[in-house]
User: Which sequence fits this backbone?
């Protein structure tokens, strides 16, 4: 492929995103992760601390802060390397691509803790292309990286966090100690992973989900490896709009802001440059590459109760719309398994989700 370039936000040249190597997990590893997510969901469902009364729910990001419908605009600033799939321009019009989208804002834990709890925050966006291809953008505010290098270590750390939810501090200490000395994580890797997680949660105060920057994991579009992000538009008002100590303060902030105007985020991409600066197979490293603003997500009105219920019944997956690379291979399989495990909770099919988005 020709090394076509475009210009990033700071004037740097953005390349073709090619030259990467992908090291997906083995089928045995993926099977183990599928079994593990089921066990974690069952443990969380049966815990008296979660209020789920035995009902299996999402393996992660169980609490919906807000569910709403909006619009995703794709601009003509898309780098040539990404000008396919959901980013492909159709026809000769100069107007931006326009998608109706479902947006789910969430806290990261697999149980409904208060917004005041230290936690990872996330946004999931679902839209369908003109050809009917289901496409999801899944992003979290961990600073452009995951607390785990790969899917196996992510799930081992999730085991520790589930033990914390089930048994409080004693459960956390017992499970962490067992995994450290049992060789699952190892002291160095465990310290590194929990250090990243601690920095992203305990040491990071979230004033509003409109002022956070959210990053996804690596995927492939055409021949290019890239990451996408949602970040605040420049005119976003800082701070919290509402009662900061309130248990639902993140939700109230979003709704209060919506009462005064639309909520907007920029859609940004980074393309792979080399393994040192943009590693495909180590999700714990922040990519050092130019960023390009290629679109804008906008929510213009407050959702109804029916809107929020519909969004909460949708299943999101980082493998929808793009080809997975690196940790996203396992995330795709684990998200599929998580959705299958809670299928009796009234999840919408892809066709039902598309119909609901189109009439929103």
Assistant:
């Amino acid at each position: 492929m020709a090394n076509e370039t475009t210009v990033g936000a700071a004037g740097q040249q953005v390349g073709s995103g090619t030259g990467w190597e992908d090291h997906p997990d083995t089928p045995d590893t993926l099977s183990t992760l599928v079994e593990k997510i089921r066990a974690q969901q069952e443990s969380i469902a049966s815990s008296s601390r979660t209020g789920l009364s035995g009902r299996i729910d999402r393996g992660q990001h169980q609490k919906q802060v807000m569910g709403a419908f909006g619009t995703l605009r794709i601009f003509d600033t898309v780098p040539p390397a990404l000008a396919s799939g959901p980013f492909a321009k159709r026809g000769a019009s100069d107007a931006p691509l326009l998608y109706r989208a479902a947006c789910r804002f969430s806290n990261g834990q697999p149980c409904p803790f208060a917004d005041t709890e230290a936690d990872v925050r996330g946004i999931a966006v679902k839209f369908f292309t003109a050809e009917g291809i289901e496409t999801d953008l899944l992003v979290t505010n961990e600073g452009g990286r995951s607390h785990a290098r790969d899917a196996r270590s992510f799930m081992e750390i999730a085991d520790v966090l589930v033990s914390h939810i089930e048994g409080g501090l004693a459960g956390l200490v017992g499970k962490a100690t067992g995994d450290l000395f049992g060789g699952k994580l190892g002291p160095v890797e465990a310290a590194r992973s929990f250090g990243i997680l601690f920095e992203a949660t305990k040491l990071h105060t979230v004033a509003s989900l409109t002022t956070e920057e959210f990053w996804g994991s690596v995927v492939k579009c055409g021949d290019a490896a890239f990451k996408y992000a949602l970040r605040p538009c420049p005119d976003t008002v800082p701070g919290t709009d509402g009662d900061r100590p309130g248990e639902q303060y993140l939700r109230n902030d979003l709704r209060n802001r919506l009462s005064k105007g639309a909520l907007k985020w920029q859609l940004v991409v980074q393309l792979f440059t080399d393994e040192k600066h943009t590693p495909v197979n180590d999700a714990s490293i922040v990519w050092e590459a130019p960023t390009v603003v290629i679109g804008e997500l906008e929510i213009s009105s407050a959702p109804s109760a029916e809107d929020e219920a519909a969004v909460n019944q949708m299943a999101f997956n980082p493998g929808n719309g793009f080809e997975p690379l690196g940790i996203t291979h396992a995330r795709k399989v684990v998200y599929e398994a998580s959705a299958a495990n809670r299928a009796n909770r009234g999840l919408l099919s892809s066709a039902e989700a598309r119909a609901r988005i189109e009439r929103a």
User: Anything to note?
Assistant: The longest strand covers residues 64-74. The first helix runs from residue 27 to 46. Confidence is low (pLDDT under 50) at residues 1-5, 168-178. The two ends are 40 Å apart (CA to CA).
